[in-house]
Amino acid sequence: MVTRINKFKLLLEDKEKNVLDIDYRLHDTVLARKWFTKLKHLRNIPVDPIESCTEDVSNLHEIYTQFCKFAEIDCLPISTIVNQKECNLLHKVFEENHERLSRRKNNKILYKFHHAIHSSEKKKHHATKTKIDIGWGIKEGPLTEVMQCQPFYEEKLQKNNLYLPWSELGKTPYIYWINNEPTEQKRFNMLCKPHITFRAKFFIALHDIEGMTFPNQFNQYFNQFKQQWLKHYGIDDWTERDEWSAPLLAHTDSTIDLHEMVFQKIIL
């Protein structure tokens, strides 16, 4: 039984239904303590399968069709293998309908569509799984708040530790560039977001990650938008750490490989 307020356990399960428990110690920051308080309200609520990436979102065509039916809009024709230009277009469709559909009941397909778009994009850039996401989706309710999270970012991610994910309805500057989004300041300011939404969700890093150096091509591209964008969001800078790292929430001494594990429960 965990009794100290700064210690807790995560229970994870493998394919054979064997349960593993991992001990964690809360990181000593204001952000980590605020996150821990949020989890006290959510610990007995089932996680959201879409936010926690346990629901299949690989069939973007089918999910898009379901989304259009729910949104009562016409489906645009897209390729059998969706390219990045089409992903950008679908993301804009999501943005244009998000506010309206977020007020509707039984709107799961709205968020499934968003995750399906980004899942399709990630397949083009990430060959291996890098983290285990855990989130409660709309069940978080009023626990979501606006907060400048960038000052709490670590220099690198360490295997099996817990981190707060960037979770904006948009893209980071580097991903904006990689996805070949429009070269427009207005669109850049609208779609690119720093980490200003503090949600109760978290992720487990599956291996050590050190951010790479920005390529010169990106720096040249980013520089034409950077100063106006920083001023727009009231932040001082955007570095490799801001792009690829995250705020540390809790750390563990466990070094076990968690790639095949699925989150089950948190014990506070």
Could you describe the 3D structure shown?
This protein has 268 residues and is of the alpha+beta class. The chain has 2 domains: 1-48 and 135-268, no CATH class; 56-129, no CATH class. Helices cover 35% and strands 15% of the residues. The chain has a 7-stranded antiparallel beta sheet with strand order 3-7-5-8-2-1-9. A hairpin with a 5-residue loop joins β1 (7-13) and β2. α2 (60-71) runs antiparallel to α4 (108-123) and α3 packs antiparallel against α4 (108-123). 28% of the residues are buried. The mean pLDDT is 92.
Which sequence of strands runs across the widest sheet? 3-7-5-8-2-1-9
**Helix content range of the residues, please?**
25-40%
Number of helices: 9
Radius of gyration: 19 Å
Helix-strand string: EEHHHHEEEHHEEHHHEE
Distance between the termini: 9 Å
Strand percentage lies at 5-15%
Number of strands: 9
**What characterizes the major β-sheet?**
7 strands, antiparallel
Class by alpha and beta content: alpha+beta
Write down the domain tally: 2
Globally, the shape reads globular
Identify the notable features of this structure and list them briefly.
single chain, 268 residues, two-stranded antiparallel ribbon, 9 helices, 9 strands
Helix-strand layout with pairing:
Elements: E1 7-13, E2 19-26, H1 30-42, H2 60-71, H3 84-101, H4 108-123, E3 131-134, E4 145-146, E5 162-163, H5 173-178, H6 185-191, E6 197-198, E7 202-205, H7 216-223, H8 226-233, H9 240-244, E8 248-251, E9 262-267
Antiparallel strand pairs: 1-2, 1-9, 2-8, 3-7, 4-6, 5-7, 5-8
